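Appendix C reproduces, verbatim, an entry submitted by the partner laboratory led by Prof. M.T., so that reviewers can inspect both the input and the predicted structure.
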Amino acid sequence: MYIIIYDFGTSSVKTCLFKIDSKIILAAGATAEYDLYISDDGGAEQDADQWWSAICSTTRDVLKKSDVKPDEIEGVSFCSQMQGSVLVDENGNVLRRPMNYLDQKGFKEYKECMGSGIIKVSGCSLYKLLRNLRVNYAGSTSAKDPVWKYKWVENNEPDVYKKIYKWLDIGDYLVSRCTGRIIRTADTAFATFLYDTRKGKEGWNKGLLKMYKVNPDHMPEIIDCTDLVGGLTKKAAQELGLVEGIPVFGGGGDTTFVNIGAGCTRLGDTHIYVGTSGWVSTFMDHQTVDINAMITGVLSAKHGYFNYYAELETAGKCFEWVMNHLALDEIGVYLSKTTVADDIESKYTSLYEYLSEEVSKVPAGSNGVIFTPWMHGNRCPFEDSNAGGMFFNIRIENDKRVMIRAVLEGICYHLRWLLECSEKKVKTSDTIRFVGGGSLSPVTCQMLSDITGRTIETVNNTQEVGAIGTALVVAAGVKGVDVLELSRQLVKANHKYIPNPDNKDVYERNYKVFKNLYKSNARNFKGLNG
C-alpha cells in the first residue's frame, strides 16, 4: 500500500510517500519551505496559504519522482508541529495569520491569569495549577501555551475574535482544508491543557474552559489520531494532484508519532529527538507530571498510552545558527542547499558533514568552552522566556571549531539534564534511540552517548521518524493490526554507540558548570531581556 504523510515542521514540510508491506520504504520525499515571522513583541507567525502551496507542490513532486499513480494512494495524514493557534470561520478560512508554538505575545495575558493568587508554584497560581493537574496532569505554565495566544487575540484583536467559529491547531487546520470537516485530534486538544484525560471523561473540560474564560463554542469536535476524518474533497484533490475521496486520517502532532517511528513502543522505552527543537520522551501506560521541571505525560497516538515529554525549545536551531553565523565565513566549502533534513531547518548537508569531521578534531569538552542552547528562551527544566544562548569561558587559544563543538555539547548537556529530570518520575531505558536530523552525525551520536552515559541507537530514515510513525498508524488502521507491534516489527536499529570512558571526567566537570550557568545568570537575562 502507498500512503502520503505530510511532516510539518517549523519552517518546512517534508512530504513523504511510503510503501508499506513487510517493510516500510520511503518511496519518495520532497520538501518545501515557508516563512516564520518573528516580531519584537514575542510574535512567531506563519502564512496558511504558504503552508498549502508547499503541500501542493511537494505532493506533485513525490508522485513525479516515484511514478506512483494518484489512484494508488490509499491514505493521507499529517504529522505536524504542535501548540499553534489557527482561528477559522465557519468555512474553515483563517481569520488572521496563524501563531506557531514559539509565539509568546500572550505574556501579559499569562501573567494576569496565572500570576495572581497568594500561593504560587513556579510563578503560577497554586489553585489554578491544582485544578489543571487534577484534570489532565498538566498546566498552562508558559506564555507560549496556546490558550494565551487565543486570549491575546481576544484582548488585542476584538474584530477577529468576534468572527471565530473554531480554534484549531496547525495539523487540524490542514486536515480541514483537505476534507472540509473541522475537528481537533485528541493530542492537539490535550496540548491546550483544556482537555480532560481522565478515563471516561475524555474531552473538553467545562471547568477549565470557564476558569480560563474560553468560549466553549470555539472548541471543535474531538476525534482520535487514528480516526478517518473523511475523503479528500474535489477542490483539494485538484490542487494537490490527487484523487477525490482518498481517505484522510486524523494524524496529530510530532510528539505523538515519533516514538512509534523510532520503534520505542515498549513500556519504558526512551527516545531523544533533535530537530529544530529537541526532547526526551519515555513511553508509558499512565500519566504523571513534574510541575517544577515542566514535564508531563502527553497523549500517544494509541488510546490509553502516553509519552513523558521534556522539551528543549531550540536544539537543531542552535546548530543552524552556528552554521550560518560562525562556520560559513571561515571554512569556505561550496554549499548546496538541500532538503535532506526535515525538522532541522534549511539543512546544509555538505557543511554538516564537514563540520562533524572538523569538530571531531577538537578534544572532548571543547577546551572548557560551554554553550547554553536557550536561544528562544527555555521551557524545561526551567521556564524563562528571557533566557538566552551564550558561550562561556572563551579564551584566546580557542577558535571557531572549538565554539562549534561547544554548541553540539551544549545541546547534549541540556538533553542529559532533561533525562535526569525525567528519571525523578519515571524509569528511562538504558539504551536510548536517538532520532531526528541531529542523529545524522556519528560524532554527535558518540557525543550524546559520552555525555549521557547511555548506549545510543539510531534508525534508518531518522529525519522522517514522525512521518514513519504516522504512516504506521494509518497502515495499522487499514490492516486491522496493533500499531505498537507493527512498529516493533518494522523499525530496527542500524547503529549503536557505547560511552567512551576516557571522556567521562571532562564531561562531568563541564556538565556541572553548565547546570549552574542559568542560576548564575537568570537575573542578568531578566535585566537584558525582561
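Residues 273 and 435 are 5 Å apart (CA to CA). Additional entries are available on request from the coordinating office.
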